[in-house]
Each structure stands twice: as C-alpha cells, then as structure tokens.
Design brief:
- This protein is an all-alpha fold.
- The protein has a single domain, classed as TerB-like (Orthogonal Bundle), CATH 1.10.3680.
- It is 72% helix and 0% strand.
- α9 runs antiparallel to α10.
Length: 243
C-alpha cells in the first residue's frame, strides 16, 4: 500500500491517536470518541514516521494557509508542489486539508503531538518549520500572522530560539547573517563554528534523514537549507580569512 493509502486507512488514525488521529478518524467516518479512547494507549513509539510526518505537515500547512485569514491558490499549489499526490488520492487528501483549515487556532494541539513524537529528532522538526516557511512565501509575502504561526509551531515542537532563528533568517533577512544561519554567536571561536557546521551537515545529510523515515519532500527542502549552511560557513571563513 502506498503512503497515501496508509494515511487514509482508518486504522492509521486509531494506531496514532491524539488530535491527529482524531482528525483522520473524522475523515474516515469513525467515532471521534473511539479514537480518543484509543489514544490513551498510545505509547509514543513511532511505527511509521514517514506517514506521521506527512499527515502532520498536511494539517499544519492547511492551518498555516488559514492563519492570515484566507487560503490563496498559490499556497495550495505550493503544498501540491512539494507533496506529489497521486490522482487517485487527491480528493481524499483534499478532504483532510479542508477539514484542517476550518480552524487555525487549534494548531498547537497538532504541533505539540508532533513535538512529542519527534522529541529526540530536532532536525525533523526543523525541516517541517522550513517547509512551512516555503508554503507561507508562496503568495509573494510572509505575513505577520504566518510568522507568528510558524514561530508558535517551533515553540510547541520544543525547538529553542537559536534553532528557529537559523531557519527564519533564511526566509526573512534581507542581508542574510551567516552566523544566524549556522546558529552561532559572532564571538564564537573558529573551532566552535566549524563544529557547528559539521553537526548541521551531518543532521541534514539526505542519508541521515532517510534513515529516520523523513519523506522525500522534506529531504529536498533540507538539501536547499544544507546549501545555505555551506554558503554561510564559506562566507564566515572568508570574513575571518580561514583557509
């Protein structure tokens, strides 16, 4: 069964539980009360991380698109661009998107659940933040409500300020600060900066992300960020005259 078939199977919602499982259950036509009862037995173990990441992004992308009061065609197209949905499943995935976008104020429930599941994998959560910025920018401008929404997701994920700002700077800063991109202080030593660059390079390596079950769509965006990190490190080396 393809990833989309698994997501839309009612049993996936039951197994996952929590607010994400409840929303899937509504789409599948199951009893929300039954799903909530099932969620009390959820032990936090990830059985299918790719499916969980994908459905989490669908829900947050829908709520993000609603955050500034309207869902634009550009934002929907940006979502479709990154998640190449097979024709047979487009209608059903559209139902999930439409159900999720009804209300953006409850997004914290879904962000908290993702943060709990991927607590030990911050690089996965960082790439979700990166993709949300991509969707927000699709209509030509990242609005203040959208920034607040993404910042809130980062907080509910459990990411710290430095982790969030290193991603935000890629999307918002007119003059990109290479130190912000790497998440280091300007006063940091050459050795510490190199260690941080090596750490990020390992975390964002496609093979590392695949091993954790990260969907291909997120891996593609992580490669873009990895390129920005390498450019930032090269810029710092140039500024400091490091060979």
């Amino acid at each position: 069964m393809s990833i989309w078939g698994k997501l839309l199977a009612g049993t996936f919602g039951f197994a996952l539980g929590g607010p994400i499982g409840a929303l899937l259950g509504v789409i599948a036509g199951h009893s929300v009360d039954k799903i909530r009862k099932q969620s009390s037995n959820f032990d936090g173990k990830i059985q299918s991380p790719q499916e969980i990441i994908t459905i989490g992004i669908i829900i947050l992308a829908a709520k993000l698109a609603k955050a500034d009061g309207q869902v634009t065609t550009d934002e929907v197209n940006a979502f479709k661009e990154k998640f190449k949905i097979p024709p047979d499943f487009q209608n059903d995935v559209g139902k999930i998107f439409n159900e999720a976008k009804k209300n953006s104020e409850d997004y914290h429930q879904y962000a908290q659940q993702l943060g709990m599941i991927f607590k030990g994998q911050p690089q996965v959560l960082e790439q979700i933040i990166n993709l949300l910025f991509f969707i927000a920018e699709a209509d030509g401008e990242i609005s203040k409500p959208e920034i607040n929404f993404i910042n809130g997701c980062s907080s509910y994920f459990g990411l710290n300020k430095t982790q969030y700002e290193s991603i935000q700077s890629l999307w918002l800063d007119k003059q990109i600060d290479p130190y912000k991109i790497l998440g280091v202080q300007k006063e940091a030593s050459n050795g510490d900066i190199r260690k941080k660059w090596i750490q990020l390079s390992k975390e964002l390596h496609p093979d590392q992300l695949r091993a954790q079950g990260v969907p291909q769509e997120l891996i593609i965006k992580s490669e873009d960020r990895l390129s920005e990190i390498n450019q930032a490190y090269d810029k710092i080396k140039s500024l400091r005259k490091i060979n």
